[in-house]
Amino acid sequence: MVNTEVKLCGVSLKNPVVPASGTFGFGVEMADSYDLNILGGISLKGTTRDARYGNECPRIAETPCGMINSVGLQNPGIQAFVEQKLPSVRKHFNGAVIANISGFSIDEYVECCAKADAAPQTDILEVNISCPNVHGGGLAFGTSAKAAAEVTRAVKDVCRKPVFIKLSPNVTDITEIARACEDAGADGLTLINTILGMRIDIRRRKPVLANRYGGFSGRAVFPVALRMVNQVAHACSIPVMGCGGVSCAEDVIEMMMAGATAVQVGAENLRNPFVCKEIAESLPAVMEELGIDSLTEIIGII
Ligand SMILES: Cc1cc2nc3c(=O)[nH]c(=O)nc-3n(C[C@H](O)[C@H](O)[C@H](O)COP(=O)(O)O)c2cc1C
After folding, report:
1. What is the rounded distance in angstroms from the CA atom of residue 138 to the CA atom of residue 108?
2. Which of 192, 195, 280 has the alpha carbon at shortest distance from 244?
3. What span, in angstroms and rounded, lies between the C-alpha atoms of 122 and 117?
4. Residue 231 half-sphere exposure, CB side, CA atoms within 13 Å?
5. 201 C-alpha to center of ligand 1: Å?
6. Which pLDDT score, from 0 to 100, does residue 9 have?
7. Does ligand 1 have an atom closer than 6 angstroms to the CB of 245?
């Protein structure tokens, strides 16, 4: 029997497989499709202080081996998240519940993180400073080491649970931002969020997305994500959740060898809603084939 268990800042995950924020709703939407308890954790849809409808449609564009989205943080707001979404996912799931928080100001991050942290259902906070699809927020904090450190410090002041900062790949040197977050007290880092992209409808002579640009993700970005995870794992000593282009158990192993302790699966859920279940089920056989007894042996070996 191989051992798939991993630990993130003292939180135990039965395996490293975690659906990424924004691609698995609030978890409960998938509870009728399969038993969620096969998953190590779930990162819930990004939540802001107030409810948001998100951006105008069209807000999804297809692209070979990936997609571009400009959903724009559609969510019911922190109050509904804490009062409805967290209790309802807990009814179906006993693994690690990750509350993903976004904001347009430090005050908003602080207020939302404090509320999510105080909720008994939350195990880990994931602070998204990397959303490319909203103006004046998200990414503005993730592309400056100083701003990233400020958000981290402010959020850490009001949280007792582990805080992971979710980093943007839309920067020249991701290790500079990663180190600033670690120095400011982050307990862990999640990377990568989406890469800024664009498609044009050449017949209509217009951008495909109403928002013009959007976040590119899916299988095509895997090598970029892997490289950044590896760079950050070497630059920092806090745990990393690797994310970007993961679509099978072999990708999970590769991400972990690059330095990830847990691995998130995003756009692939939209292509195959059962992919996280399939990865969790196939992981032990792939480990056996590769002679891996325990996943903790391979974290960051490259
Ligand atoms: C439709 C969609 C919505 C997303 N919404 C969020 C979000 O609310 N918060 C967040 O931190 N990341 C969000 N992301 C980013 C993903 O969590 C993930 O970081 C990114 O897509 C890279 O992983 P992937 O290549 O496996 O999709 C979203 C991605 C997609 C495709």
Report:
1. 11
2. 192
3. 6
4. 18
5. 23
6. 98
7. yes
Per-residue pLDDT tens digits for 146-164: 999 999 999 999 999 999 9
Atom of ligand 1 nearest to the CA of 267: 27
Give the pLDDT confidence score for residue 130 in this predicted structure. Answer: 83
CA-derived radius of gyration, the chain: 18
Q: For residues 75 and 109, is the Cβ–Cβ distance under 8 A?
A: no
Find the helix packing angle between 249-258 and 275-290, rounded to 10°: 70
Distance between CA atoms of residues 101 and 115, nearest Å: 10
**Three-state SS at 141:** helix
C-beta 100 within 6 A of ligand 1: yes
Report the relative pairing of strands 240-243 and 188-191 from DSSP bridges.
parallel
Structure token pair of residue 9? 């800042």
Output 194-199 pairs: Cβ under 8 A, ≥24 positions apart: 194/68, 194/69, 194/132, 194/169, 194/221, 195/169, 195/170, 195/221, 195/224, 196/132, 196/170, 197/63, 197/68, 198/68, 199/61, 199/63, 199/68
Under-70 pLDDT residues of the chain? 133-138
List the one residue out of 25, 11, 55 whose CA is nearest residue 211. Answer: 55
**What residue type is 87 in one-letter code?**
P
Domain boundaries in the chain? 6-298
Q: Whose CA is nearest to atom 31 of ligand 1?
A: 267
Neighbouring CB atoms inside 10 A of 274's CB total 12
Q: Which CATH architecture has domain 6-298?
A: Alpha-Beta Barrel (3.20)
State pTM to two decimals. Answer: 0.97
